[in-house]
Amino acid sequence: MGRAVRRLTLALLVWLGVATLTFAMTYLIPADPARTLAGAQADAATIESIRAQLGLNAPLYWRYLHYLGGILHGDFGTSYVTGEGVLPTILERLPATLELAVGALLVYFVVGVGFGIWGGVRPRGWGDRFGLAIAVLGVSVPAFCLGLALMYVFAYRIPVLPLGGHGGLNHLILPSLTLGMGGAAYYIRLLRSGLHDVMRQDYIRTARAKGLSERAVIVRHALRNAALPLVTLLGIDFSHLMGGAVLTESLFAWPGIGSNALVAISTLDVPMIMGTVLFAATMIVGVNLVIDAVTPLVDPRLRS
């Protein structure tokens, strides 16, 4: 019980720290949202009027307290550009981001976990070499370049998939591959290394000596011990994906949280920027709390 309270307290402190840093960095940048909204040809009176309407003339400490009071009541503010609530806008785009996050996680599992297990169980085989090649490419090639290459091949040269947009399952394939290949590369290397070490342990030889099948040895004994770091990494990756993949969503015109954040940055929509960052931080903190609760179930040694 005491450990849970400490974890929850630490999570709240981290969340408050992120909210404070986001507010400070957003309001201390050398740019004026009022001038951006007014346009380059606006006079000083118009700019000052907009600043008064947005509350930018108030003291900084008052704006900070007003900001904290609002988010504690579930009010993330109102967009400078659209005039709509920040939190409703984020929640409206959340399903699209969730679809993309699940698609990327499927790539993590199919490519990363699949080739990681293959390489860990049968090192130096052709599957292991192919998996390592995928890992090197996934780490080396930026997601933006990979997305452009996939679009060129599968949407232009061989037009079997759409260039972008949000629709059916075929619209999800290219963005998921673009977003998921980088993570799959780390999963391959992590699981391959961990499984390769576990397969040489004494208890694995004992399990084989008892007559267990190779599949049972791998699934019941080796994989369960090697997959613990993967569980932690999976939760962290999912929380980051739910925060919005800015480049991937923008490249494929995916109407998620990330593409909305990029528009907010380009227009200096301060409430939307702060709301998006705070929403992503909330996801990360929440998922980490879930990971702390799940990992003792995966590895009983951690219960003590």
Any descriptors?
mainly alpha; MetI-like fold
Describe the structure.
- With 304 residues, the chain is mainly alpha-helical.
- It has two domains: 71 residues, no CATH class; 217 residues, MetI-like fold.
- Helix 5 packs across helix 8, helix 8 packs across helix 10 and helix 13 runs antiparallel to helix 14.
- The longest helix has 36 residues.
- It is flat, with a radius of gyration of 24 Å.
Cα-to-Cα separation, first versus last residue: 13 Å
- Total domain units: 2
The helix-and-strand class reads mainly alpha
Just give the CATH class of the largest domain: Mainly Alpha
Q: Biggest sheet, open or closed, and with what strands and sense?
A: none
At the third CATH level, what is the topology name of the largest domain? Answer: MetI-like fold
* CATH architecture annotation name of the largest domain: Orthogonal Bundle
Count up the helices.
Answer: 14
Strand content: under 5%
Q: What's the β-strand tally? A: 0
Q: Helical percent range?
A: over 70%
Radius of gyration over C-alpha positions, nearest whole angstrom: 24 Å
What is the residue-averaged pLDDT? 82
Low-confidence spans? none
